[in-house]
Structure formats: C-alpha cells, structure tokens
Write a structure and sequence with these properties.
Strand order of the largest sheet: 2-3-7-6
CATH architecture of the largest domain: Up-down Bundle
Number of strands: 9
Distance between the termini: 61 Å
CATH class of the largest domain: Mainly Alpha
Helix content: 40-55%
Largest sheet: 4 strands, antiparallel
Shape: globular
Structural class: alpha+beta
Number of helices: 11
Length: 391
C-alpha cells in the first residue's frame, strides 16, 4: 500500500500559515490532552462525570481566560485561543465547553463589565483554576429569547433581591461564582452571585444523552440578597450578555473543527487497517468518497475558522460573521461525525471510538450559544436588511 502523499487532516497545508507561537500553543495543548485527558474521556462520558481535578491543571497551562489581558490571564491572540479550543474539542466537547464558559462567559463578563474590585477578586482565582465560574442567562421558558427573561432584581435599600430560575447552565453546581442576568426597572443587568449565598441553590440535570462529561445545571434564586457591589457596573442592557455570547461562539467555531478532525482521523485509521474481502476497506471507492468529502469539509471549515480568527485579531470581526462560522462549522462537524461512524460499522457505536460520542455532543453544540435557526436568521438579516425575528 502506498503511503498518503499528504497529511489528510491538513490537505490545504493550513499549518504553514500559522506563526511559530501559534503552532507551539497548539502542540502544547494537544500534547497535554493526549497524555492527561484523552485516555480517560470514554469513562468520564460513560459515568456522566466531569473531572474537576483537572481544572487547576488547565489553569497552570494558561487555558482559562487565555485571550484576556491582565489579572493572571495569558493575553493570547484570538487565533491562539481558537487553536486551543480546536484541540480541546478534538478530545471532547464537554471539555471545550468548560474552558469556554470559564473564560469567554464567566471571566469575560467580569473582565469587560466588572468593577476593578470584582476583577481583582475573581479573575486571578478563575484564571488559575482555583475557582470555577458559570453564566446564568438561559431560562426554562426563554432560551433563544433572553429579552423576555423572568428573573428579576429589585432594589431594597442599598441591596438587590433576585428571584428566578436559570436552566441548562454549564458548570452550574460546581461554580464558585455565577454571573446572573436579571431584569430590573432600569433594564437587564448582571450580578455576581457567590456559591453559598442564602437563597441560591443548584440542581444538576441528569439522564443526558449529550455532553455527559460536563456539568449542566438548573440555578434557583429565591430571595437572593446582594449588595450593590455585586452588580456588574458596566453591564447596561441586553447587549452586555449578548457580547459575552459572541465571545463563546467564537471558540465554538474552532472547537467544532477539532471534533470533526478527530472523527476523520479515527475513520482513516480504521479504514486503512480494517480488512474485508481481502482488502482494507479504505481501498473501496465508496469509503474513499466518504473520506474525501469529509476531509474537504474539515479543511474548508478550518480555513473559515482561521480567517475569522484573523479578522477578530484585527478588530473587525462582525457578529454575523461569527454566526456564519458557528452555523457552518457545527453543521459540517455533525455530518462528519455521523459519516465517519458509518465507516466504523458496528464498532462505531461503542465508546472505544470517538465519532458517535462527538456526534451526540455536537447535537448540544448545535443548540447552545444560539441555535442554528437563530444564526441562520442573523445571517439572513445581514443579507437582506430585514429582521425575521418576532417583535
């Protein structure tokens, strides 16, 4: 059998367009995950457990809030952060979700909208993995429509009293601090709610078929009293949490490429060693068509992610462009995961191989941080100038 003439995971030689620093970060993250995390992921997925013990290790590696400046954060570029997300999700979407929520939602909300006192108190702990954060925006009846959230914050003297429920919150029950968004008489505002605050409780969502190696929770606020110093002073209106979501979506469009790439790698390895009819199944035309189609998808999705990353580093990335990236790359990743699973045959339904695990995880990724329909309509509005959103 002739050896492949090129790296099938990088047909377009995109690696040559990266700086040495970008390549070093990608290699360092990949090596850590290969040695420390990848062997345990199938068991974590089977057990429905998130390995909290690795959080300080992620902090030591500089992955938590890595694209933020100061306060113990690494201050990397957008592309460097994206490449780290790509490697994280190549292992498991739940792992990338943890890093994304910690850095691009919890830490970013404090970094962008918090007071200096809030930044000094929380960001170094969160960056080091000594504390965990979560982001409470989605509600049981208001997912894609956060403008109509029911959680309320009412002034009571110099304090605020919060009541409401948040749902589908990654890291919820293990978080040391929750960024909670609530409706006030002045509009939507953000608050930092520490673990243990009276009236604040959490409940993990069980029986998940997706993102099993990740903590997903309901947050309940029942008369939670906070001083005004817990309010994010620069968060004014719905634009604040949506800005945070856009940060998280950026990580997803890189992460989805990682999941798809891992599926393709697994399928190629299997197809070149699995023998049927006296030949490796990779020698059959239909298998080669599947592999070629998926390699084209992985490579063009990676090209899109890198292009958007360069735009973000240049300070010109627009929200609808992030929507293009998430919509396309998650769609393509799910198709790749499903198609690669078929190449594995019956073996593909076990946790020994990653494609089906990636496929079910990506079902959640398709939905969170804006469903595919929301991103489709965001792009549609950019194309036509006409909003299809109700109200």
């Amino acid at each position: 059998m002739n050896a492949p003439l090129t790296n099938p995971l990088d047909l377009l030689d995109l690696g040559s367009t990266l700086s040495e620093t970008e390549r070093d970060i990608q290699r360092t993250v990949a090596a850590f995950l290969t040695d420390r995390v990848r062997p345990s992921v199938p068991k974590w997925f089977d057990d429905g457990a998130f390995p909290r013990e690795i959080v300080p290790e992620l902090g030591k590696l500089g992955l938590l809030g890595m694209h933020l400046e100061g306060y113990g954060c690494a201050g990397t570029s957008a592309v460097e952060y994206g490449l780290a997300c790509m490697e994280l999700e190549a292992v498991d979407s739940g792992l990338r979700s943890f890093v994304s929520v910690q850095g691009s939602l919890s830490m970013f909300s404090i970094h962008r909208f918090g007071s200096e006192e809030q930044k000094q108190h929380w960001l170094p702990q969160l960056a080091a993995g000594e504390a965990i954060g979560c982001f409470g925006l989605t509600e049981p009846d208001h997912g894609s429509d956060p403008a109509h959230m029911r959680t309320r914050a009412v002034r009571d003297g110099g304090d605020w009293v919060l009541d409401g429920t948040k749902m589908w919150i990654t890291n919820g029950s293990i978080a040391d601090v929750a960024t909670i968004w609530a409706r006030t008489e002045e509009g939507i505002r953000g608050f930092l709610v520490p673990r243990g605050t009276p009236g604040f409780s959490t409940r993990d969502i069980k029986n998940k078929l997706s993102l099993r190696a990740s903590v997903t929770s309901e947050l309940v606020l029942d008369g939670v009293r906070l001083p005004d110093s817990a309010r994010l002073p620069l968060a004014d209106g719905l634009r604040a949490p949506l800005t945070c979501l856009n940060e998280a979506r950026f990580g997803i469009l890189f992460g989805a490429v990682g999941a798809a790439r891992d599926c393709l790698r697994t399928a190629i390895e299997y197809a070149t060693t699995r023998v049927q009819f006296d030949r490796p199944i990779g020698a059959f035309q239909l298998t080669q068509q599947k592999l070629t189609d998926r390699a084209l998808s992985v490579n063009t999705s990676a090209l899109l992610a890198l292009h958007l990353g360069r735009l973000k580093d240049a300070g010109v990335l627009r929200p609808e462009q992030v929507s293009v990236g998430k919509l396309n790359n998650v769609r393509e990743a799910i198709t790749t995961a499903r198609e690669c699973r078929t190449i594995l045959g019956g073996s593909g339904i076990t946790t020994e191989y990653s494609p089906l695990r990636h496929a079910v995880n990506l079902e959640s990724v398709l939905t969170y941080e804006g469903t595919s329909e929301i991103h489709l309509l965001t792009v549609g509005k950019a194309l036509t100038g006409l909003s299809a959103f109700a109200g």
